[in-house]
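TICKET: design request
STATUS: open
ATTACHED STRUCTURE:
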């Protein structure tokens, strides 16, 4: 539509020229466009508030309690199911048969794993695979990883992934939407809970 961005008067003029049907189509397109933009802004505001709350000197101290990391992984997988509804991706879990007990806060850990899964979903093309693996080493150390067959990050940019608002060149060239705050939140949660 050539008159977009030319002012309200021009839109009204073209409404008269197009008639009600075409203008209704334009209105629906404009509403969808504004809704998507508002959703992106809301996501960014929520991410910024989350980061600020984790960094605040007045934030309440964490209250670690024993929990099974398998439960955290399952809850995080359940929370991203909606993101997969229009995608063709395999979401897999590789979890031990026995409980993996750690001291932590489920809300923080679920947010971290969910952010990792959301990134993996966002940056993996249809037909790809996302796997959350939980393992326990011989010394009792837990290892949780989220791997994917996604577009990846150029090696010379990997050191930037935890910087706020960082978006890799591959994400920008593929025009993948995002705030660039997800991994900053994951890193901050790790620091709050004193996990590596």
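STATUS: resolved
RESOLUTION: sequence designed for all positions
ATTACHED SEQUENCE:
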């Amino acid at each position: 539509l050539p008159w977009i961005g030319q002012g309200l008067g021009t839109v009204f003029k073209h409404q008269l020229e197009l008639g009600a049907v075409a203008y209704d189509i334009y209105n629906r397109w404009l509403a969808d466009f504004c809704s998507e933009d508002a959703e992106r802004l809301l996501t960014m505001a929520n991410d910024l508030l989350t980061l600020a709350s984790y960094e605040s000197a007045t934030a309440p101290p964490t209250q670690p309690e024993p929990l099974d990391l398998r439960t955290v992984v399952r809850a995080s997988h359940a929370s991203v199911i909606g993101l997969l509804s229009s995608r063709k991706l395999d979401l897999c879990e590789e979890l031990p048969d026995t409980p993996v007990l750690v001291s932590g806060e489920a809300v923080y850990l679920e947010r971290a794993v969910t952010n990792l899964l959301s990134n993996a979903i966002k940056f993996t093309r249809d037909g790809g695979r996302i796997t959350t693996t939980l393992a326990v080493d011989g010394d009792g150390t837990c290892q949780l990883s989220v791997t994917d067959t996604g577009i990846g990050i150029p090696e010379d940019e990997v050191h930037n992934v935890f910087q706020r608002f960082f978006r890799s060149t591959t994400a920008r060239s593929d025009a993948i939407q995002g705030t660039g705050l997800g991994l900053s939140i994951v890193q901050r949660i790790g620091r709050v809970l004193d996990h590596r």
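CLOSING REMARK: The first strand starts at residue 65 and ends at 68. The mean pLDDT is 78.
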